[in-house]
Amino acid sequence: MTRPRSEPLREKPAANTPVFELIDVEKTFQVPKPGRRFSRETVGLKALDGVRLRINDGASLALVGESGSGKSTLLRVLLGLDAPTDGRANYRGRPISEARSKGTEFARDVALVYQDARGSLDPRMTVGALIAEPLRHFGIVPRQEEPARVAQLLDRVGLPVDSAQRYPSGLSGGQVRRVAIARALASEPSVLVADEAVSGLDVSTQAQLLTLLRGLQQDMGLTLVFITHDLGVASYLCEKIAIMYLGRIVETGATNDVLAAPAHPYSVALRAAAPRFFEPLPEPLPGEIPSPLDLPKGCRFSTRCPSVKGDCRTRDPYLAQHGAGRSVACLHPLSDGEGLPLASDADMSSPAVAADIQNQTDTPLSRD
Ligand SMILES: Nc1ncnc2c1ncn2[C@@H]1O[C@H](COP(=O)(O)OP(=O)(O)O)[C@@H](O)[C@H]1O
Ligand code: SF4
Ligand SMILES: [Mg+2]
What we know:
Residues 20-271 form the ABC transporter domain. This is Putative D,D-dipeptide transport ATP-binding protein DdpF. Residues 341-368 are annotated as: Disordered. One of its GO terms (molecular function) is ATP binding. This protein is α/β, with parallel strands linked by helices and 368 residues long. The chain has a domain at 256-288 and 295-351. The protein has eleven helices and twelve strands. An eight-stranded mixed sheet has the order 6-7-8-3-9-10-12-11, with helices on both faces. A four-stranded antiparallel sheet has the order 2-1-4-5. The longest helix has 18 residues, at 203-220. The protein starts with 19 loop residues before the first strand and ends in a 6-residue tail after the last helix.
């Protein structure tokens, strides 16, 4: 029997209640004390440190930052897979932990496209069975309607209907990602969360998948949270961007505004280092990222910041409003992209990136 698709969680939240709201969220992992391999002593590693974030219905947000900045941990908190050690993490006005524990509505509404799409698919199951699994789990359609719904979903993600009989091992990297997206869409979610969902593919396949994701987001009004290393991907897919450094959001705002005139010196460095669209982000600045177990005093970016001043080594800047719809965690934010080196003149505005993507999807390079 088909279960009701979306039994209400409780009384409807107010119309302007965000899908997700993080208020001063901290996530500390206990890790072995450095240099004490055989001791049981542990220390706290703050993967997230005072994160404030609001994601409204239908919004698209890119989470960007170097490896280790806390992007995946933030996503796990949104998914309720990691509980904050401090602060509040809400989904539609109630704690995520509570929403997750009551019925299946949260799991149905918030879908994840895994970073390792191939690893997330059982190799012994056909594509059809893989897509039918969430349909059945959430009681989306009666059994007899499953094949038709599977065919619809395959078509929606640009795969031929006869892919249903194939196994993941016979699919290309791009096709596997499409199956993972079809599986995520099967539960009819309103939120799609993706961790590096297009990385590691050839440029043409990436372009096709990005076109697909943007189409889905626009047609279905999905709320999208997308982790990426690629500023071009962020610009193309997401209206808003949050740039992370060592467990903090250091700058957030409209993607085009932030990329055109970054205000935090770390955003400037990322932007300056971004080569062309579709090229992986290199190390943006000289100097090592400090260990999260041994953060510098004051501003955590002070050991690498070209604009560092005396007070930066004693005062810890928090995310504060910086113009309309923008926030920056810096004691001396830059204005109008000042200090942006000329080497960074690659146009990352969404129209320019869209044109680049169009060129790539027209290129008959695809192994997809
Ligand atoms: N389960 C865990 N146990 C201990 N440390 C963790 C765990 N998950 C993440 N970390 C640490 O938290 C920090 C942020 O990691 P992560 O969220 O994976 O960053 P990103 O996705 O930006 O690369 C890193 O220093 C990482 O080593
Ligand atoms: S607070 Fe100081 S060190 Fe930190 S980013 Fe701003 S200018 Fe650089
Ligand atoms: Mg990660």
